[in-house]
Specification:
This protein is globular. Helix content is 41%, strand content 20%. The chain has one domain (5-84): 2-Layer Sandwich (Translation Initiation Factor IF3). The mean pLDDT is 94. It has helices spanning 5-15, 31-44, 55-69, and strands at residues 22-24, 46-51, 72-77, 80-84. Strands 1-2-4-3 form a 4-stranded mixed β-sheet, sandwiched between helices. By secondary structure, it is an alpha+beta fold. The chain is built from 3 helices and 4 strands, in the order αβαβαββ. Helix 2 links the parallel strand 1 and strand 2 (46-51).
Length: 98
């Protein structure tokens, strides 16, 4: 699923009011962390993740999350990245039209 610029802008606005639901520490993207991300995406659709690593590692982790979960990156600022993935069974967020 590809989001339009206006949809990404809308989702970025929504991310200001949420706290990180998953924090990735020194051990990286472990199986437990991946499960937590999966559950959070299913439940919330739009999630904020805090990645505690250097810039290159954060970029690699964000790309892995995007590919593994087929999640759309909304934005990344410093150690915080936000992803969106629509839940086909129970839609939580109503996106504006393209």
């Amino acid at each position: 699923m590809s989001l339009s610029n206006s949809q990404k802008r809308y989702l970025r606005g929504l991310t200001h009011g949420i706290n990180p639901v998953v924090m990735v520490g020194d051990k990286g993207l472990t199986d437990n962390v991946m499960e937590a991300i999966e559950e959070a995406l299913d439940h919330h659709e739009l999630i904020k993740i805090k990645l505690r690593a250097d810039r290159e590692e954060r970029k690699a982790m964000a790309e892995k999350i995007e590919r593994h979960f087929d999640a759309e990156p909304v934005h990344a600022i410093g150690q915080v990245v936000c992803f969106y993935r629509r839940n086909p069974e129970r839609q939580v967020i109503e996106l504006p039209r393209r």
